[in-house]
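Subgroup meeting minutes
Present: P.N., E.W., G.H.
Scribe: E.W.

1. P.N. recapped why we're keeping a running log of single-chain structure predictions: easier to compare across weeks, and new members can see raw inputs and outputs side by side.
2. G.H. added today's entry (233 aa).
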Amino acid sequence: MAASPKAVVLLSGGLDSATVLAIAKNRGFDPHAITFRYGQKHHFEINCARQIAALAEVREHVIAEIDLKMFGGSALTGDLAVPKGRSEADMGAGIPVTYVPARNTIFLSFALAWAEVLDCQDIFIGVNAVDYSGYPDCRPEYIEAYQKMANLATRSGVEGKTRLTIHTPLIHLSKADIIRKGLALGVDYSQTSTCYDPSPEGLACGACDACQLRLKGFAEAGLADPAGYVKRA
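Output recorded in log:
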């Protein structure tokens, strides 16, 4: 029997990435998960990523260390405050201060390097352009451009041995649809952390953009969010 093809899965510890990991497994891939400690304030998500990877029995899970605090420029890595209680209109207007400059480009570069070492041609990432279109590195055209670049930038691509594919199975789904898909695949969302500003114990704030979108998704799916909250919006 042929071995399952390997895939590198970007695993933050949040709702979307946990769903993507389940999708990769369901599609018959042998996932190798990569999580980033990049100086984010909400580093509690790294603990969640460890738990999710263990529950999914991934073959290998690495924590990559990158210090993006040296640049700042984001409410997630610098001195800017995490916005709370914003309306949907506010969330959809412009690029939010929680955008981390070039984050997905950096993350995908690490994933690309590992994929080449693993001799695999598939990367999974949980970007989404529906519920939250403010991040420029979550758009389909960005992923398409990055994939084209990746196949020009690696030895395996130049030699024609493999052609890399970046899978974005959530990119056109609403948060409610993502949750439904994940539950159908057995994802335990109580193990995930989405909040940008959790308490020291890991309780979600309930008011940041990420919390509001998550709670809205569960409500639209007709379900209660199993995550712990300090206060729900």
